[in-house]
Amino acid sequence: MIQALSLAGLFLALATGLPARAEVPEVVAAEATPQAAGWRVDVTIRHPDTGWDHYADGWEVLAPDGSRLGYRELVHPHEDEQPFTRSLSGIAVPAGTDHLLIRPHCLVDGWSGATFRIDLPG
């Protein structure tokens, strides 16, 4: 019965042109480090990259109010490197900010609805 439901769902997805399952990237770890010229943020992402047509293509650093502080473009797929970590330096964090939010992006599925919180050292 479960297999029949799965096949029916797959048929519906194929018939409507929708992906069978959205595969937005997931932030599995992140760390922020103060530096002389702003902050460095290291982000580890997991995403089932399939090649140039479907891969995690970036992530953004957000202030608690949702304003963008930085964006890290990912310019190629990471099919054989999962999860993977990339960094962004020189982020200007407003005074008094106690945390940052990270939101990943997928070339096909767009922005993840989930953010990852990084608490900044006090």
The geometry reads as: elongated
What's the N-to-C terminus distance? 54 Å
Biggest β-sheet description? 5 strands, antiparallel
State the order of secondary-structure elements, H for helix, E for strand.
HEEEEEEEE
Poorly predicted parts = 1-20
Percent in strands: 35-45%
Number of helices: 1
CATH homolog superfamily: C2 domain
At the first level of CATH, the class is Mainly Beta
Give the total of beta strands. Answer: 8
Question: What is the mean pLDDT?
Answer: 85
What's the architecture, going by CATH?
Sandwich
Radius of gyration: 17 Å
Q: Can you give the helix content as a percent range?
A: 10-25%
CATH topology label: Immunoglobulin-like
Number of domains: 1
Task: State the secondary-structure class.
Answer: mainly beta
Would you mind describing this structure in some detail?
It is a single chain. This protein is mostly beta strands and 122 residues long. It has one domain: Immunoglobulin-like. 12% of the residues lie in helices and 44% in strands. The chain contains one helix and eight strands, in the order αββββββββ. It has one helix spanning 2-16, and strands at 26-35, 38-46, 56-62, 68-73, 84-91, 99-106, 110-111, 116-119. Strands 3, 4, 6, 7 and 8 form a five-stranded antiparallel beta sheet that branches. β3 (56-62) and β4 form a beta hairpin. The radius of gyration is 17 Å and the shape is elongated. It starts with a helix and ends with a strand. Mean pLDDT is 85; it is low at 1-20.
